[in-house]
Amino acid sequence: MAKTLRTSGDYTIRAGAGTAGTNQIDFDSKTVRVRGDLIVDGDQTIVNTATLSVEDTFVELARNNSGASLDAGIYVNRGTAGNNSVFYWDESEDAFKAATTTDGAGVSPLTSATLANVRVAEPADNSDAATKNYVDTELSAVTSLDLSIVGDDSSAVVLQSGDTLKIAGGSNINTAVSEPDTATINLNNDLINITSITSDSSNSNLTLTANGTGSVTINNILTFSSNASTPTAGSITKVYSKTVGGGGTGVFFVNSTVDSGTEGELISKKKARAYAIALG
After folding, report:
1. d(CA 185, CA 269)
2. Distance CA 266, CA 273 (A)
3. ∠ CA 88-92-93, rounded to 5°
4. Segments making up each domain of the chain, as ranges
């Protein structure tokens, strides 16, 4: 006999004492239907059924997550077969992963995750994941691979299967190749066609050093740009240009061990002759 119980307000059933009850309530029927929203407040929801059928188009996990560190996904209990498996979103790497884990189903973020294989069908679209078989097949079908190389002058050459790439050194560069797959590029001893050498660090020195007892030789004109001030004297002689003074050359030098570091000007031939006449 069908029976309907209707109340004008809330209706509460408790089994046992206390706010939440202490005993169990069993519904023993073929079907239990809730016509409305079902809210379960507790620590665990257990479904002992052979099949779980959900009409919703999306299933939301980690519903009350308000942080940025929880992992979430599907947890599979493998029994005695081995470590349990998960297909989950790894929040620390912004990626989906398939893995095995020794963590329990309530642990998030995961502290143990060993990546597992994922098998997919052969790709049919450019956005499909590729299988190893597909990649191997595609690579084995490649009979030639064209490589275009463009030089500084915008001229280009195309390397095809069987062609050799030659690395030419030129007048200032020496090149050599060796196994395994190594190309070495060295500057030759003599540099030519160089119009400018600039130090790459601010206010740093540019040092030219000859080998052994050799010297730095300048075969042509050595030009000094005019200095606005006198450099600081050091234990080495510094030669520089300033406004022409009594020496008549405008070429000065300074050395901390010469004349107590006071700068001096090289004297021109004309000035030297005049001084000689004046001094008798």
Report:
1. 50
2. 14
3. 75
4. 70-137, 238-279
pTM of the predicted model as reported, rounded to 2 decimal places: 0.52
Would you state the structure tokens that stand for residue 245, as one six-digit string? 């003074």
What is the Cα–Cα distance from 131 to 90, expressed in whole angstroms? 22
Q: Work out whether the CA dihedral 179, 182, 183, 184 comes out positive or negative.
A: negative
Q: Parallel, antiparallel, or unpaired for β 147-150 and 114-115?
A: unpaired
Tokens standing for residue 219: 């075969």
In whole angstroms, what is the distance from residue 104 CA to residue 273 CA?
101
CA atoms within 13 A on the CB side of 216: 4
Average pLDDT over residues 96-113: 95
CA 76, CA 85: separation in Å to the nearest integer? 5
Point out which residues pair with 185 in neighbouring strands.
175
Q: State how far the Cα of 228 lies from the Cα of 240, in Å rounded to an integer.
A: 10
Residue type, 127: S
Q: Work out the pLDDT band at 261, boundaries 50, 70, 90.
A: very high
